Amino acid sequence: MSKMISRVEGLELVLERVFDAPRELVFKVFSEAEHLKQWWGPRGWIVPVCTIDFRPGGIWHYCMKCVDEKQGDFFGMESWGKGVYHEIVDGEKVVYTDYFSDAEGNEAEGMPSTLVTMLFEEYDGKTKLVSRSKYDSAEALKTVMDMGMEQGITETWDRLEEHLQSVK
């Protein structure tokens, strides 16, 4: 399994990882609710709600819920998120703004939003995924790093790799 490479460039958190699956498949599991429900979120979390309108201007709305009793205070907690798609190039690129939200899809006050650009690159029959998350300020970037964003994405992408192996 390949390791995630992570670096900060200015106000951007850049994450890269190679997945042992064709680019079309990796793109597909990011664009369909039934796939996202299987792997989105850190270990011990499930996605009971996930709706996607996968087109520019469309909205992705989801809820992650912690079902792992070993995660202490997080157990039973729900975390809602909303993505608004700006640009989609089939099989190659997805650009969206990511927000913390509530169950109705209202953006959470005082929480940083993120402009996310995901690139799906052909890599010797595998797929190199490059995620660039741009924040409005150094403080916003620090806030999400302090919340454990890097660890959460590492676990999410581990689950993505496992899901890709199961559907390949």
TrEMBL record:
Checking Gene3D superfamilies in the record gives: 3.30.530.20
Domain Activator of Hsp90 ATPase homologue 1/2-like C-terminal, by residue range, is 20-164
Sorted alphabetically, which Pfam families does this protein's record hold? AHSA1 (PF08327)
Renumbered to this chain, the signal peptide range is none
Record-linked InterPro entries: ASHA1/2-like_C, START-like_dom_sf
Q: Which domain of life is it from?
A: Bacteria
The UniProt family comment states: Belongs to the AHA1 family.
What name appears for this protein in its UniProt entry?
ATPase
Organism the protein comes from:
Paenibacillus riograndensis
